[in-house]
Design brief:
Strand order of the largest sheet: 2-3-4-7-6-5
Number of domains: 1
Oligomer: single chain
CATH class: Mainly Beta
Number of helices: 5
Radius of gyration: 17 Å
Number of strands: 8
Strand content: 35-45%
Low-confidence stretches: none
Mean pLDDT: 95
Distance between the termini: 15 Å
């Protein structure tokens, strides 16, 4: 399902000069390209006691669906945290052209949907791990993130205040 990309606006960062007369929102395509190209994402989950947990993961951003998926052991802290508190944050691995996505995570249980994501993972990472990767993925938790808001900053002096952008998802 193709979804309409969100429109960017200025995040509340006026103390850094964001939102001034030279500010121009980054297009969502800029963020989507960086998310799709990322090899190792950071996923932040929170346990039932409010303790954050951050770990690098392989994942797939699918820009047509505006969805992100990662996989982990069903017994992993990430999976337990998502079961207790579905709010998560994912980021790309670039600290200069950074994208941070907040959203709600759920365990994918529909076999057809799992298979769609497994094939996307195989396309992205299969050459690195070999022919058993799809079976490995099917045996683990597949967790889909539906974004609610995303932020981007460009950590270069000439672009930070003029390009920092927030997107809200419907």
């Amino acid at each position: 399902m193709i979804r309409t990309p969100p429109q960017g606006d200025a995040p509340q960062m006026t103390d850094y000069g964001v939102g001034g007369p030279d500010w121009i929102a980054l297009p969502w395509a800029w963020a989507g390209e960086r998310l799709a190209a990322t090899r190792n994402y950071w996923v932040v989950t929170v346990d039932a006691d409010g303790q954050p947990h951050s770990m690098p993961v392989w994942g797939v951003w699918h820009d047509d669906e505006l969805r992100f998926v990662f996989s982990c052991s069903p017994n992993a802290k990430k999976a337990r945290n998502v079961a207790a508190n579905p709010k998560v944050t994912i980021t790309n691995d670039d600290t200069v052209e950074a994208v941070s996505v907040q959203g709600v995570a759920t365990l994918v249980t529909d076999p057809e949907r799992v298979e769609i994501w497994v094939q996307r993972f195989v396309t992205k990472y299969g050459d690195e791990v070999g022919p058993d990767f799809a079976d490995f993925m099917r045996a683990h938790a597949v967790i889909e993130v539906v974004p609610t808001v995303a932020f981007a900053i460009i950590e270069r002096a000439d672009e930070f205040a003029t390009r920092a952008t927030r997107w809200r998802f419907s």
